[in-house]
């Protein structure tokens, strides 16, 4: 499984097949399939989150960071945790 030093592995492995030139096309293809499956699973999980973005209130004058922070209503940690789970 994986790259090994062929001559030393033959003494401990019951079966071994050398791969001339390194990783073969089948390994690359399976890595791509698994990467795609992982990305699809992550996408599906992210779409199931029940957290909704805040609505935007567009202002003419761009407020400072302090003004933005002071205008927010904080969530209690427990409330936020329940919404995430």
Structure notes:
Helices cover 49% and strands 0% of the residues. It has 85 residues and is mainly α.
Short description:
This protein has 85 residues and is mainly α. It has helices at 6-9, 25-47, 65-71, 77-84.
Unreliable parts: none
Rg over CA atoms: 26 Å
Structural class: mainly alpha
Q: Main β-sheet, in a few words?
A: none
**What would you call the shape?**
elongated
Amino-to-carboxy terminus distance: 38 Å
Q: Quick check: average pLDDT?
A: 81
**Number of separate helices:** 4
Query: How many E-type strands?
Result: 0
Please give the share of residues in helix: 40-55%
Beta-strand percent range? under 5%
Order of helices and strands: HHHH
Chart the SSEs and their pairings.
Layout: H1 6-9, H2 25-47, H3 65-71, H4 77-84
List keywords for this structure.
single chain; mainly alpha; elongated
